[in-house]
Automatic annotation (TrEMBL):
It comes from the Bacteria. This is Aldehyde dehydrogenase. Gene3D superfamilies: Aldehyde Dehydrogenase, Chain A, domain 1, Aldehyde Dehydrogenase, Chain A, domain 2. GO terms for molecular function: oxidoreductase activity, acting on the aldehyde or oxo group of donors, NAD or NADP as acceptor. Belongs to the aldehyde dehydrogenase family.
Amino acid sequence: MSSRPVPQGGDGQRLFVGGAWTEPDGGYYEVTDPATEETVGGAPEASREQALAACAAAREAFGPWSRTAPEERAAILGRAADIIRGQLEPYAALAQAETGATTGTARGMQVGVAGARFRRYARVEPAEWAIAPQINEAGPMGRAGVMGALAVRQPVGVVACVTSYNNPWANPAGKIAPALAMGNTVVVKPAPQDPLSVYRMAEALEAAGVPRGVVNVVSGRAVAVGEAVVESPDVDMVSFTGSTAVGQRIGEVCGRGMKRQLMELGGKGAALVFDDADLGSAVAGIGTTFSFYSGQICTAPTRVLAQRGVYGRLVEQLAAYAGRLKVGDPRGRDTVVGPVISAAHRDRVESYVELGRKEGATVLGGDGAGHGLPSRGFYVGPTLLADCTNDMRVAREEIFGPVVVVIPFDEEDEGVALANDSDYGLIDYVWSGDVARAFRVARQLRAGGVGVNTVARNMEAPFGGFKKSGVGRDVGSYALHAYSEVQAIVWPG
């Protein structure tokens, strides 16, 4: 480990800027456990000047790091993966305390996925590929000849990684690891609700041997911190995961500065369930919305479009599924649904449920498997809104909680039209016993991904959205493209 100042200060976590653990100019603020409302620790409040200093440090480190051999960069990422896996339990305990995730989710889907993503980008892949030679006839451009060409992936430069609160491990790792693998340097601005886990990730990278300034982390509740990072002239690219509204504002800044951008924004995933579907599979898949991150996930199938012949049974089975889920302390062995991230977000989700009631929806569930909700913590019971129409606000806006709306349809074309009648297009789903129809429908959906009879993902498949769900694609090899520029080199053969 480094002999530099320890990451923790007297009042809380220090910033990580230019390879040094730095006292924040704005002091510290409390990070709250959403399950208990107790304080997890003190998070640093960076000043605008410190945010800009982090960007400048990344700019200074970019030249040497970009020239480092890919094998050396990969070795550092591999060591970081080993450190993260070796610290799985304490890292998962912190993630659980910050986010309210259940124990299985914190270990497997937060810290576990982060370690896997660093390991994935610890393998060296070709960064160049040959292009078929071109035969040029003699003309104004010169004599006849054969022109060879090579396409080369080059790093973009300094990447600002602005991450979401729902997964403070996997989400930052999915940005940092491929960006570093391609030779970029990064400035990470974590979500204010749960930044402490991201600093543990920076510690792991420091211990793995990442050079000074290659990775920087600055946090804060003030909007000015994120704005400074995004606007900095030292930043060449912004990778953002979060709401569409914030993404639009970031996109405006990127447009003015011609910065590259990768945006993974909101979702209102449509799940088309046809009359011939395996209802057990559909209910189990859609039911993950209630439990997985307590519905705080943009890929969730939150807008269920049920063909008329199966509508009644599907509503009945989804309501029963929601009613069986134990809501409570995420550390409890039998807990399935933990809290949402904050009191403000709990109130927001509950207001949508009430809005749905006023709009004419039938509200089912919401009482925590009949046991009531815990008196402390920010809990929302799994809730089904049946008898909805696609023009209701609850069917059109992202609620980001354990709430599912159900809308009936008659014919296939109507179902497709309803699915596509949305501002969002991240991931949709199709359940049908007719595989040919399922794939036919999938190709008609305006979404970046489609799950056919499953909510599982292939972690090498491209990930990103249509419409207001984002710009660009990442995951697997697609992330290496996302965090690089393509350069053409041409020569006479």
